[in-house]
Amino acid sequence: MAGHKDAKKGAVDAARSGPVKIPIYWEADRQTYCARYVQDGVRKRIRNKDLKTLKASALKVAKKMSSATPTLEVDNLTDHQIAVCLEVVRRGITIAELDKLDGAPDDVLVADAIEEFLSAKSGRGRSERNYRTLRSNLSKLQAFLKKRRRKTIRSVTSTDFDKWLQGAPSARTANNWRASAVNCW
Fold first, then answer.
1. pTM of the model
2. Looking at the chain, which residues constitute the CATH 1.10.150.130 domain(s)?
3. What is each CA distance from 164 to 36, 167, 179, in whole angstroms?
4. DSSP 163
């Protein structure tokens, strides 16, 4: 494969536009220059014997691709927007969690949610032992979240759950704690 062999030599030049960079390689076996890039998940290439002509063509493609690429200019953010971004990073919130927050209902207190869950479980013919286990596991979760100042369900992150589960004495106990918390949430 000629492309593999030439790729080791490195790019001769590159067409840049914003965050997009299209490298240009010399293909000795064809005696041409080749620009290789990926667009919409498809590998593409442009070939030309003249480097300037190829670079101009690659630059047009790079400009088209960069116009579709969103960029974040930190200089354009307000102080409030920067503070929000820093808070998101500090809390360890993921994109999936942000999507869920958008349409979340009113804040529900962790204590209220646990109390409601336990009252629903106690009247359903569950065994006393099952109920005691749920109550014990969820009270440990509630105490842990209280130490971390997480009063509402909305404020609890996956990082909080991971930290709580790391405090379990064994892997099996961690699985049991996780099952109790997942059933409650």
1. 0.40
2. 106-184
3. 48, 5, 13
4. H
Which strand (E) or helix (H) includes residue 5?
helix 2-7
Structure-block tokens of residue 100: 């869920």
Residues 15-68 have pLDDT tens digits of 998 888 899 999 999 999 999 988 877 899 999 999 999 999 999 999 888 877
CA dihedral 152, 155, 161, 163 (to 10 degrees): -110
125-168: pLDDT as tens digits: 677 777 788 888 888 888 888 787 777 777 777 787 788 788 87
| φ and ψ at residue 162, rounded to 5 degrees | -60, -45
Architecture field, domain 106-184: Orthogonal Bundle (1.10)
Residue 125: DSSP 8-state? T
Point out which residues pair with 13 in neighbouring strands: 24
* Site of tokens 């691709």: 65
